[in-house]
Amino acid sequence: MVINQMEWNSFRDRVALITGSSRGIGSAIARKFARSGADVIVNYRKAGGKSQAQGELLCKEIEEMGRRSFLIQADISAKESVRSLFKEIRERCGRLDFLILNAAKAPFKPLENLLERELRQLVETNYLGNIFCVQEALPLLEKTEGKVVFISSLGSRFYNPAYPLGSMKAAMESVLRDLAESLSGMKISVNGVCGGIVRTDSFKVLRQYWEEIDQMPEELFVEPDEIADAALFLCDPASRGIRGQTIVVDRGLSNRLYRPIPKR
């Protein structure tokens, strides 16, 4: 891949935490920040699994770019785990410039069929967990006049019977709007990126509940790097005029509400 020289060094000596970044969109964001000169904290939820192994490989890749990387396990749904995550960040990095809220976890089935434990998981990981991260990050971000970027999805705006996560994404888009105002006095920027359909591990499950998705033209699928580019932009001084907004990166898919999608 040809790397734009402008990516290099613009974030040199800055530190970025990307939650849920051992794979998928999160890992693309981690690589993008590393290429821009930032040291990167790679977070994963469960020790000993596939995510940890992928996180170790990602950190090695980032270090080969000449940047520091830190692989830290933490389940953001648990406040104590989030406290430990930020304690380790303070001890190992001493600063934080960019908080990218990417971690998500939810079953793929209708809201009305969710068990109580699934509903609690939905809220605890995708709503409370993100707010826990912001709360713990504030002292560090205030010192650096840092940036917070939440990674949302089109499920926040459009109905999908098998995507209860969409309601939490919508809630967080409201939260980031409110945080943008309440944290403006600390000069902390808060914005979001609403991504279209990306072929991640979750996509393999989603297609089981959404048969028509296989009829979608190739050009409407979003690449993880496109989400990462938007996240990077929202952390760049060039985005200084944007506050409390969620930028849609979907290759125009959401514009087609009344326009039939041609079959391949």
Folded structure, characterized:
The protein is of the alpha/beta class and 264 residues long. The two termini are 28 Å apart. It has helices spanning 24-35, 50-64, 79-92, 116-144, 165-182, 201-209, 224-235, and strands at 15-18, 39-44, 69-73, 98-101, 147-153, 189-195, 246-249.
Order of helices and strands: EHEHEHEHEHEHHE
What is the share of helical residues? 40-55%
Amount of beta strand: 5-15%
Distance N to C terminus: 28 Å
Quaternary status of these chains? single chain
Largest sheet: 7 strands, parallel
Mean pLDDT: 92
Return residue spans where pLDDT drops below 50 for at least 5 consecutive residues: none
Radius of gyration: 18 Å
**Counted beta strands:** 7
The strand line-up of the biggest sheet is 3-2-1-4-5-6-7
Class inferred from helices and paired strands: alpha/beta
Number of helices: 7
Please name the defining characteristics of this protein:
globular; alpha/beta; seven-stranded parallel β-sheet; 264 residues
Write the layout of secondary structure elements.
Blueprint: E1 15-18, H1 24-35, E2 39-44, H2 50-64, E3 69-73, H3 79-92, E4 98-101, H4 116-144, E5 147-153, H5 165-182, E6 189-195, H6 201-209, H7 224-235, E7 246-249
Parallel strand pairs: 1-2, 1-4, 2-3, 4-5, 5-6, 6-7
Helix pairs in contact: 1-2, 1-7, 3-4, 4-5
